[in-house]
Amino acid sequence: MFARLRSDIQCILDRDPAARSTWEVITCYPGLHAIWLHRPAHWCWHHGLKWLGRFISHFARWLTGIEIHPGAKIGQRVFFDHAMGVVVGETAEIGDGCTIYQGVTLGGTSLYKGAKRHPTLGKDVVVSAGAKVLGGFEVGDGAKIGSNAVVIKPVPAGATAVGIPARIIPSKEGQSADVTTEPQQPRKFTAYGITQEDDPLSQAMRGLIDNASSQEHQIALLWQAIEKLSSANQQAKDCVPCDAALKEQFEAGKLNELVGK
């Protein structure tokens, strides 16, 4: 038991640069208090003391601003960072090493009692501020949910989900941890789950800009070749218009800066 308590504290010290000491974490981190109160509530819920479990959960909500249903399953080293306004539903499951920020909802879209209505988060998932993950599907290991995203379908391992409704950006590695036989390197923790490279619209714009720049480069090379031929061939010279683009004028660098490259 004490080893698990130490693990709860250490995961906060590892992931929050603002955490200066163990004592500060124990006394000033409501996310830690919410997890510690959830454990007896969860035990009561599964041992026939459902009202007591709900009452402990309600007290934890009043104390921390974090609402975790006593039926929810929470793994080890889970960090609720800031976490005011977080709501975790009854059948939700949160895997080991997950990080959940403020305003997150792990909600359900079904009214059938006893059914799996809420999402399952794999290991090391990051759910950013304001995100809504709605439904009884799975978010794979190492996935990232961007701020304010609304996720309504499964997210593969290592992928990033951003937007409303969320668009899925596959992992750059192209494979999940359970596919490869090589030992996995520890995942680099990304605060708030998403970086500039994870914006699909910026990626699309950069692709279009690079394609247009490449086409202009090819056109300029063609006109330069035609101009060289014109010195020896009068007919080729007549084919070169006075406004031919012999030099590249497409400012790909400036456009890429505008879209965040």
Describe it.
It is built from seven helices and 15 strands. The chain has helices at residues 2-15, 22-28, 30-45, 50-64, 200-230, 234-239, 252-258; strands at residues 67-68, 73-74, 79-80, 87-88, 93-94, 99-100, 105-107, 120-121, 126-127, 132-134, 138-139, 144-145, 150-151, 160-162, 167-169. The strands form three sheets. A six-stranded mixed β-sheet has the order 3-6-9-12-14-15. A five-stranded parallel β-sheet has the order 1-4-7-10-13. A four-stranded parallel β-sheet has the order 2-5-8-11, with no helix packed on it. A hairpin with a 4-residue loop joins strand 14 (160-162) and strand 15. Helix 3 packs antiparallel against helix 4 (50-64). The longest helix has 31 residues, at 200-230. Mean pLDDT is 81; it is low at 175-183.
